[in-house]
């Protein structure tokens, strides 16, 4: 695992005009065809950052090495937040994603597998993460603290 962060960790947050992290407090910038709008200045905001760590396992509960773990903003928040971070698991299946703001997230894992025999000498396919066999992401909440012990399941690719 990466070395622990120092005591004061922050990251740049999604920031709305005129410089707020609160979407409800955002103000629209109206631009009509053929016009210019000037003096639109705002400062990106930083917020406390936390770590999310855990283990990726297969259907039999065995650790999965080199899986790619992705943390995505919760789409139910009403806005697209994009990936909040990612990491590759170590040989023991453990992962750690740093610089995560508090909020609701979905965590998925994929396993890259080399498929031989293609014209280019090999391609990669991915098997998706699962929770209870549904293919749904693991849902987690990052409060104002690090989150550990997250368990993400993934189906191993058929060889």
Can you describe this structure?
With 159 residues, this protein is an all-beta fold. Helix content is 0%, strand content 42%. It has strands at 10-12, 46-48, 50-57, 68-73, 83-88, 94-100, 103-115, 123-127, 129-130, 138-142, 147-154. The two termini are 29 Å apart.
What is the topology?
Elements lengths: L9 E3 L33 E3 L1 E8 L10 E6 L9 E6 L5 E7 L2 E13 L7 E5 L1 E2 L7 E5 L4 E8 L5
Parallel strand pairs: 3-11
Antiparallel strand pairs: 1-2, 3-6, 4-5, 4-7, 7-8, 7-10, 9-11
Approximately how much helix is present in the residues?
under 10%
Radius of gyration: 20 Å
Low-confidence stretches: 117-134
Largest sheet: 5 strands, antiparallel
Number of strands: 11
Number of DSSP helical runs: 0
Mean pLDDT across the residues is 79
- SSE string: EEEEEEEEEEE
Structural class: mainly beta
Shape: elongated
Beta-sheet strand percentage?
Answer: 35-45%
N-C termini distance: 29 Å
Notable traits:
single chain; mainly beta; five-stranded antiparallel beta sheet; 159 residues; four-stranded mixed beta sheet
Tell me briefly what this model is.
The chain has strands at residues 10-12, 46-48, 50-57, 68-73, 83-88, 94-100, 103-115, 123-127, 129-130, 138-142, 147-154. The chain is built from no helices and 11 strands. By secondary structure, the protein is mainly β.
């Amino acid at each position: 695992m990466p070395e622990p962060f120092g005591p004061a960790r922050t990251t740049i947050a999604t920031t709305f005009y005129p410089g707020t992290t609160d979407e409800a407090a955002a103000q629209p910038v109206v631009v009509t065809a053929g016009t210019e709008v000037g003096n639109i200045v705002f400062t990106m905001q930083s917020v406390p950052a936390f770590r999310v760590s855990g283990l990726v396992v297969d259907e039999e509960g065995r650790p999965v090495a080199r899986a790619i773990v992705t943390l995505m903003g919760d789409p139910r928040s009403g806005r697209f937040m994009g990936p909040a971070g990612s990491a590759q698991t170590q040989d023991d299946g453990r992962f750690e994603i740093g610089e995560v703001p508090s909020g609701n997230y979905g965590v998925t894992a994929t396993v890259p597998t080399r498929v031989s025999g293609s014209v280019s000498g090999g391609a990669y396919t991915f098997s998706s993460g699962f929770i209870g066999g549904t293919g749904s992401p693991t849902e987690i909440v990052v409060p104002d603290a690090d989150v550990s012990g997250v368990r993400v399941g993934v189906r191993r690719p058929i060889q």
